């Protein structure tokens, strides 16, 4: 029996987002508070970029080799995410999950924002979503045995 799982079947629909004027400090705080590593940046509900935990770490390392945390906090509070965000590769809700997984593996992405034809953010699919799918599939296999 063939099972066709799409991104829509797996994606997280309730996505924490940023706007371009939010600061790096706000991005880091949102990530820490929600235990997430990827924050889509939106303008009028349309995806305009992505900020990741890795982006924040690289900015921290390049700006603060000496590790002055107070200076880092002040500077991060003054830099808008538009200065750090990057363009995101996206998928549609109808993208087969297998294709999304292959893209994430090939490009070493931790997430793919899910958008409609107009670029409106509908959700996000992450490595954790694929792990949850794997767990459900393994449980189903074990139940059949």
Write the SSE topology.
Layout: H1 7-10, H2 24-34, E1 38-43, E2 46-52, H3 53-63, H4 69-76, H5 97-107, E3 111-115, E4 121-126, H6 127-144
Antiparallel strand pairs: 1-2, 3-4
Summary, kept brief:
The protein has helices at about 5-10, 25-35, 55-65, 70-75, 95-105, 125-145, and strands at about 40-45, 45-50, 110-115, 120-125. It is an alpha+beta fold. A hairpin with a 2-residue loop joins strand 1 (about 40-45) and strand 2.
Could you characterize the architecture of this molecule?
The protein is α+β, with helices and mostly antiparallel strands. Helices cover 43% and strands 17% of the residues. It has one domain (7-144): Roll (CBS-domain), CATH 3.10.580.10. The longest helix is centred in the last third of the chain and has 18 residues, at 127-144. The chain is elongated and about 60 Å long. The two termini are 16 Å apart.
What features would you highlight for this structure?
two-stranded antiparallel ribbon, two-stranded antiparallel sheet, CBS-domain
Describe the oligomeric state of these chains in a short phrase.
single chain
What is the number of beta strands?
4
Q: Would you identify the regions where 5 or more consecutive residues have pLDDT less than 50?
A: none
Helix and strand run: HHEEHHHEEH
Radius of gyration: 17 Å
Q: Identify the CATH architecture.
A: Roll
Largest sheet: 2 strands, antiparallel
**Structural class of the helices, strands and pairings?**
alpha+beta
CATH topology: CBS-domain
- In CATH terms, the superfamily is CBS-domain
């Amino acid at each position: 029996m063939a099972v066709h799982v799409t991104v829509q079947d797996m994606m997280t629909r309730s996505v924490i987002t940023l706007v371009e004027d939010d600061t790096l400090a706000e991005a880091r705080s949102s990530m820490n508070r929600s235990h997430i590593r990827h924050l889509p940046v939106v303008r009028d509900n349309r995806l305009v970029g992505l900020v990741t935990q890795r982006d924040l770490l690289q900015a921290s390392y390049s700006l603060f080799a000496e590790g002055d945390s107070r200076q880092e906090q002040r500077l991060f509070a003054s830099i808008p995410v538009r200065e750090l965000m990057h363009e995101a590769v996206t998928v549609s809700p109808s993208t087969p999950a297998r294709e999304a997984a292959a893209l994430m593996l090939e490009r070493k992405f931790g997430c793919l924002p899910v958008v409609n034809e107009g670029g409106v953010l509908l959700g996000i699919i992450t490595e954790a979503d694929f792990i949850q799918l794997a767990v459900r599939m393994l449980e189903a296999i074990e139940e059949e045995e």
